[in-house]
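Data availability (excerpt). The following record was deposited with the supplementary files.
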Amino acid sequence: MNADELRTLQAPLKDRYREDPGGAVVALTARGALDEADVVCRVDTGRALVEAGLHPATGGSGLQACSGNMLLDALVACAGVTLKAVATAIGFELRGGTVSAEGDLDFRGTLGVAKDAPVGFRAIRLSFDLDTPEPPERIEALTKLTERYCVIFQTLAQPPTLALTVKRPG
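Predicted structure:
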C-alpha cells in the first residue's frame, strides 16, 4: 500500500468523523470464559481461542499464555501497525524491521508476598529495529508520530478510567 491508497482508504472515514464526532467512538470488546477446574481463562480473540493461565513465576505450567505477555503482544502489534501506517502516510522508506517490547514485573506484588511491591509492570520498554536508509531526523519524526497515534502506547502512558462490575445470575 502506498500513501495515496492509504489516503483514499481513510479519507471517507475522516470526513465522516469530522461531521459526526460521536460516530468515531467505537466500543471494542473482549470476552473470556473461566475454566471450571483450572486457573485458566479462555479468550476468544475473534481470530483464535487463547488460553491464558498463570505465569511460571506465579506457579503456572507455562503451557498457557501469560496475560502480561499478551499486553506486551498488544503493544507490539499496535506499535507495528501504527509505525507502518505512519511510514506509508509520510512516504518513509521502510524495507522492514522488528518491533519488540519488554516489561519488568515484580511477582512478589502479584503473589501478595510484599505489600510494597507493585502489582503490574513497573517499566515497559518498546523498541524498533528498522531497515531504512532514511536520515535520523526522519526516523525521529516517524517514531514521534508512531508514539502519538499508537492506541495501546497512549493507553498505557495515560491510563483511562477503569471500572469493575460483578454480575450474578438471578
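Summary of structural features: The chain is about 40% helix and 20% strand.
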